[in-house]
Amino acid sequence: MRIGIMLDQPTGPDALRSLTGELQRAADEGFRSAWLSHIFGLDALTALAVAGSRVPGIEIGTAVVPTYPRHPGALAQQARTTALAVGPGRLSLGIGLSHKIVIENMFGYDFERPARHMKEYLAILGPLLADKPVSFTGETLRANLALSIPNEDRIPVLLAALGPQMLKLAGRETDGTVLWMTGPITVREHIAPVVNAAAEAAGRPAPRIVCALPVCVTDDPEPAREQAGATFAAYNQLPSYRAMMDHEGAAGPADLAIIGTEDQVAERIRAVVAAGATEFVAALFSPGNGVRTRKLLATLSD
Q1: What are the angstrom distances between the C-alpha of 207 and each of 74, 171, 186, 191, 212?
Q2: Smallest Cα–Cα separation from 180: which of 122, 245, 114?
Q3: Taking the model in full, what pTM does it have?
Q4: Running DSSP on this structure, what letter comes out for residue 234?
Q5: 22 pLDDT exceeds 90?
């Protein structure tokens, strides 16, 4: 199994040094990949450029960069610069719409027509990431530019996709999808069939399905379940994630969190992969340093 880990969002003046140390630890422990979210802390691509340039080898990715606040040309420029800093074949660019409450209430952008926005966004982003000029006029976006960053290879794009329209777009136009709060039943019955069929119809390679979930190895699951419910409570209020929980039959994030002994956690992770995920990414939330959790995850990674 390809096992990755979500990096914590460090704070304070030593945040980039802390992130570099965490990335080095993940590499030393044998994780295949490390992913950084982009919310309201560190800029994910900038932080990964710094940490990734100091820690070789391990794959790195964003999970995910919201599209509305940044023009696709600007994002392509930043991503290609980050790829140049960390070296070829290491960066995966995870992007997503974010949520209406974030884009409209916080950033002040119009969140209408999200599927059209993303389709046009990819029409600009894709060529620029592949070192091709783009001339495009759409209903929501325009671009007429080229970039001159000397990248050695194309940067893969993963689209955060949960609904059918976005999954089809991910299969047709990107390298796959990156998921959050999405369990094995939903992956098997909804995510994998839709994105795989779209990729096949478009003549594209089988897409990556990167599934990220909270994980905690413990002999005392109830306190961990309570903590997961509290830590991830906000996702109950976001319609796209709530729809995935409903499909899974989950009352809330605590039901999706993978909690239990080493054998129990390993079994549930294997179930996610068997359902169709190509990669599993663990978001650790256990108290302390989560030594048991990290040790198990490292043994599962091929």
Answers
A1: 25, 6, 17, 11, 16
A2: 245
A3: 0.96
A4: G
A5: yes
